[in-house]
Amino acid sequence: MDHKTLTDRLSKAGLVPGPAERLIPSDFNPTVQLEISFEGKPVQHGTSFRTSEVAVVPGVKFKPEAEADSRASYTLMLVGPDPAEPTNADKAFFRHWLIPGLEPLASGMVAETKFALTPYRGPELEKDSTPHSYLYLLYREPRNQDPRKEDVGGDEFEERRAWKPEDYIKKHELKLVGLNWMTCAPEGGKTDNDGNNPDDVDTTEEPVVEPTVLAS
User: Fold this and answer.
1) Do residues 100 and 73 touch, judged by C-beta distance below 8 A?
2) Which ranges constitute the DSSP H helices of the chain?
3) CB 74 within 8 A of CB 80
4) What sign results for the dihedral spanned by CA atoms 209, 211, 92, 175?
5) How far is CA 4 from CA 7, 9, 28, 30, in A?
6) How far apart are CA 132 and CA 198, in angstroms?
7) d(Cα 10, Cα 49) in Å, to the nearest integer?
8) In a designed cystine with 95, which of 60, 91, 108, 163 is the match (CB 3.0 to 4.6 A)?
9) Out of 3.40.50.300, 3.40.50.920, 3.90.280.10, 1.10.10.10, which CATH number does the structure's domain 28-185 have?
10) Where is the composition biased (Acidic residues) (predicted)?
11) Which of 50, 68, 80 is nearest to 200 (CA)?
């Protein structure tokens, strides 16, 4: 996806300008196509899901960067930039998933070489909640990176809230290379921000990504 198309979509989604601008530079141009899928349903830059559809770890695929070292490794994070309550902006950026040491293979399959610093926890929304956005961010790591659990924080609900991903990114000198995002609505809840039912959104714009289990 070219820079202009990505910028337009991020703007339409209310992410940049918006809560995600602290993580996504205005001149960002992806060098990796980050493919995420849940049970065969791909995440395609704003695809809508119900919470039940995203309860399990998604499939992840991406191919090696053309200009990167063949031994390059990557960190994937999933964050929720929307606060649980609109009036509680200081509680934004829930840490749903953080996994370092991902190594892409030529096929697009991804090898997991390190334990997740934050295990996957899918979106959880109250029935009367409006749809929320969720960002998948892929970063190239510097050589010989050794992130530690204490750099991130605990795994309990309150410990995941109000995370500051930009601090972690700066400390570990991560470079953003790819991204994707989705919206999620509660079971039986309101429709997404465009007025669509998540079950009815057309996801045929890009090829379907088959779910992939991260190899250990």
Assistant:
1) yes
2) 3-12, 157-160, 165-171
3) no
4) negative
5) 5, 9, 10, 11
6) 12
7) 18
8) 163
9) 3.90.280.10
10) 197-208
11) 50
pTM: 0.86
The identity of residue 54, as a single letter, is: V
* Residue range 61-112, pLDDT digits in tens: 999 998 888 889 999 999 999 876 665 666 689 999 999 999 999 899 999 9
Q: Decide: 67 and 59 in contact? Cβ < 8 Å.
A: no
Residue 128 banded pLDDT, cuts 50, 70, 90:
confident
Hey, what amino acid is at 104? Answer: P
151-175 residues labelled b (16+ CB within 10 A) or e (exposed): ebbeeeeeebbbbebeebbeebebe
Closest listed residue to residue 118, CA positions, set 147, 137, 95: 95
CA 204 to chain centre: 20
Contact status, residue 60 vs residue 134, Cβ threshold 8 Å: no
Enter the tokens of residue 7: 């910028």
Q: Which two tokens stand for residue 156?
A: 């309990």
| Cis peptide upstream of residue 17 (ω within 30 degrees of 0) | yes
pLDDT, tens digit (0-9, with 9 covering 90-100), for 16-60 = 998 899 999 989 999 999 999 999 999 999 999 999 999 999 999
